[in-house]
Every structure is written in structure tokens, then in C-alpha cells.
Write a structure and sequence with these properties.
Elements: H1 38-60, H2 64-92, H3 95-117, E1 128-131, H4 142-145, E2 153-154, H5 167-175, E3 180-185, H6 191-202, E4 210-215, H7 225-236, H8 242-250, E5 254-259, H9 269-278, E6 283-288, H10 289-299, E7 305-310, H11 315-322, H12 334-342, H13 347-351, H14 355-364, H15 385-400
Parallel strand pairs: 3-6, 3-7, 4-5, 5-6
Antiparallel strand pairs: 1-2, 1-7
Helix pairs in contact: 1-2, 3-6, 7-8, 9-10, 11-12, 14-15
Length: 409
């Protein structure tokens, strides 16, 4: 019987204990930016400690009235020091300095995550997207139908591509008249990887807004999306206080990239879509295809969104990805790719239909001595069910060992 998969996630600040349910499989990753309090907060802390010690000494000698007066006067001094620290701390960093430091921290965070996932070893799997064929988008205008920016695209346009991965999607979004871009795909289709690489590509132009990639799972639509984004940015990146994050959003200097809209409880979908329709923010949103279609069918479309969907992986793109680490002239994956081409509706083609399973297959058969051809039949015209079932179990075990859920190298 297949083991039940449970996803546990926490976003934002944690005060107290954080409990992980069930068995932890794989690695744990913690991203923490320590808050630099500075000397002004140190002075306030020192004064507070001195007041407590002084009051304790006075009480010990029976001088209660003096201790009360000391605490009262000291409390006023402490209040002044804290207020001053807050005011000066806010002035110490200008908006330009804050946005520059935020850009650096976002780049460091997601560059490290990209490297940790192995997304460019040496090139990512070529993802392709196209305008969705699902009934989830408002009718395009005549002018929009004639534009090609968001019609189709590729993560990398060729093996010699010099632009950052996802640069084509970034250019399409910036040229689009619609302020929202929704990226659809099934589980493991590469949505999270695509927007991670989108975020890194968007950081290169300092004249453009800073992208902030956030998991939208914890959003309650009772809170305005603008307020939620400002709060989450201040929690993730303390260099930007909440009120300043709100100002940067209003000034269009931040670009929210919201990953996993489908993780919001289904009973909140109507309110969520309504809140996004009311928002004037430019943003990128990812969601699973079927869940988004169900929500739009029930609660209405996002009126200001262009909607694209990640395409199934083409056999030639899978072949290129499989052979990136092989020695020149070695063709270990030919039988697998040929079997997928010959039977595009067969069980092996279904098994290797998503970027997630393709990346896991390469991981399982990464050693030069391994034999990926065992996934494909040798002579029989039909793939033995037990062969594919065994491969599925093996890839599933590899998946459980991975510290990520939507990894597409």
C-alpha cells in the first residue's frame, strides 16, 4: 500500500514550539535573517537591566518608596529610549538603501535554493508554456490576440542560451497589458521551479521592482493581499519594516510572486479570487490546473490576469536533460526515449510525463554504470506492467528522499 504523503509547512515568524507531524523524510531547510538591533536598542536594554537591578537592591534594603520612584522615572526614560530607537532606526535606512539590501537578500536566498536543488547542473530541464486551453481566462481583446508575448515560451530557447533561465517569461510579463500572470500546471509540472527562476531573472534589472517569492498557503483573504504581502515581506526580510514594505508596494517597487494558490482552503477560494480582482498590484501567481479551473467555474475569473499553462515535456527535451551528464557518445537513454515516442499513451510515457519524475529518473540512474534501459522493454511490443510498476516504486522512494517537492533541475 502506498504511503500517505503529508506536507507540513510554516511561513512567517514562529514564537514558541513548532511541531512536525509524522515522519520527517529528507532534509530540513531553515531560512533566517537575524534582525540587527543596533546600539540604540543596546542602550535601551542596558538601562532596563540597570533599573531592575537597582530596584531589587533598594527593595532588599527596605527602601520601597525610593524603589517605586526609581522605577517610575526609569520607566519614562526607557520609553523615551525605545521610541527614539524606533524613530532613528527607521531613518537610518533610506528607501533606496532598503530596496537595494532587499534585492541582495532575495538574490542570496533564492540563488542558494537554486543551487541546493541543483537546478542548473548544468542546465535546467526545458519547460515550455502556452496560453491555457481551459475556460479560465477572460476574453482577449483584438489587440491582445495579435500579440505574441504570452502565446508560447520556453525556459531556455537553446543549449547556448546566454540569458538567465525564465528570461522569456519575464519579458512577456513585463510587456503584457494585464497586471497578473497565472501559471498553471499539474503537481510536479515545474511551477515552483519556474517562478523561482523567474524571480532570479527579475532581480537583474535594478530599475525594475524587486520580486518577492512567497508561499501563499498562509493567506486568509480576510486580510487584504496588500497588507498580507507587506507583513510577510517584513517577516522574511527585517531590513524592510512593515510600513515601509506597504509604501514600496504602493510605489510599485515590489513584485509579489505568489506560489501555490491551490493550497488555500477551498472554502476561501471565492474570497481569494475577489480580493485578487480588487487588487491593483502587478503579481505572478501559480496554481494547480484542475483546482484553478474548479474555483473559476464556481467563483468567477481573475479579470486582470493572463493565464498560461506548462506543457508536457517533449521526448527530445527529456533526452537532452538525461544526457547532460553522460560522456560523449554514450546513449544510455535511447531505449527509454524510443519507448516513450513509440507509445506516447503507454505506462512509461505516463510515468515520465512530469518534470518531477524525469528529474528523479536521472537521479536514480545518475551513475555511468546504471542501466536506465531496464525501464523499457527489450523485445515485447507492450511494456510489462510489472516493469513500470517497479520503476514507479523506485522513483517514488527517491522522491521521498528529496528535500523538495517540486524540483525540476
Amino acid at each position: 500500500m502506498a504511503s500517505e504523503q503529508t506536507r507540513n509547512e510554516n511561513t512567517g515568524s514562529v514564537r514558541g514550539s513548532l511541531v512536525q507531524a509524522r515522519t520527517i523524510v529528507g532534509d530540513l531547510h531553515f531560512h533566517h535573517q537575524p534582525r540587527n538591533r543596533g546600539p540604540r536598542w543596546g542602550a535601551a536594554s542596558a538601562v532596563g537591566l540597570a533599573l531592575l537591578i537597582g530596584a531589587a537592591v533598594l527593595v532588599r534594603h527596605g527602601w520601597w518608596p525610593v524603589a517605586v520612584l526609581l522605577l517610575a522615572a526609569g520607566g519614562l526614560l526607557e520609553w523615551w529610549l525605545i521610541s527614539r530607537a524606533i524613530r532613528l532606526g527607521d531613518r537610518a535606512t533610506s528607501p533606496d538603501e532598503a530596496i537595494s539590501e532587499l534585492r541582495r537578500q532575495v538574490r542570496d536566498q533564492w540563488s542558494a535554493e537554486r543551487d541546493n536543488r541543483g537546478l542548473q547542473e548544468p542546465r535546467p530541464l526545458r519547460l515550455r508554456w502556452r496560453p491555457t486551453q481551459r475556460p479560465v481566462q477572460v476574453k482577449l481583446t483584438t489587440a491582445e490576440k495579435g500579440r505574441a508575448e504570452l502565446r508560447r515560451g520556453e525556459l531556455l530557447e537553446g543549449t547556448d542560451e546566454t540569458r538567465p533561465a525564465a528570461a522569456a517569461l519575464l519579458a512577456a510579463f513585463r510587456q503584457s497589458p494585464r497586471r497578473q500572470l497565472v501559471v498553471l500546471g499539474e503537481r510536479g509540472a515545474g511551477k515552483s521551479t519556474l517562478v523561482l527562476l523567474f524571480t532570479l531573472a527579475a532581480l537583474d534589472d535594478e530599475a525594475q521592482p524587486v520580486p518577492v517569492l512567497l508561499s501563499v498557503a498562509g493567506w486568509d483573504p480576510g486580510e487584504r493581499i496588500e497588507d498580507w504581502v507587506a507583513r510577510r515581506v517584513s517577516e522574511e526580510y527585517p531590513v524592510v519594516p512593515r510600513h515601509r514594505a506597504a509604501r514600496l508596494l504602493a510605489d510599485k517597487r515590489l513584485l509579489p510572486v505568489l506560489d501555490g494558490l491551490d493550497e488555500i482552503p477551498s472554502e476561501l477560494w471565492g474570497r481569494a479570487l475577489g480580493a485578487l480582482n480588487r487588487s491593483a498590484l502587478r503579481m505572478v501567481i501559480t496554481c494547480r490546473s484542475a483546482e484553478f479551473e474548479a474555483a473559476v467555474t464556481t467563483d468567477g475569473v481573475l479579470a486582470h490576469a493572463a493565464v498560461v499553462e506548462i506543457e508536457p515535456i517533449r521526448p527530445d527535451d527529456a533526452r537532452d536533460f538525461f544526457e547532460q551528464r553522460d560522456v560523449e557518445g554514450v546513449r544510455r537513454w535511447d531505449r527509454v526515449i524510443d519507448a516513450v515516442i513509440e507509445r506516447p499513451d503507454g505506462p512509461l510515457a505516463e510515468l515520465l510525463s512530469s518534470p518531477l519524475m524525469i528529474s528523479l529518473a536521472r537521479r536514480v540512474y545518475r551513475r555511468p554504470s546504471s542501466q536506465p534501459e531496464e525501464l523499457a522493454p527489450r523485445r515485447a511490443p507492450r511494456i510489462p506492467h510489472r516493469t513500470v510498476s517497479g520503476a514507479r516504486r523506485r522513483l517514488s522512494r527517491a522522491r521521498n528522499r528529496c528535500p523538495w517537492e517540486d524540483r525540476v533541475p
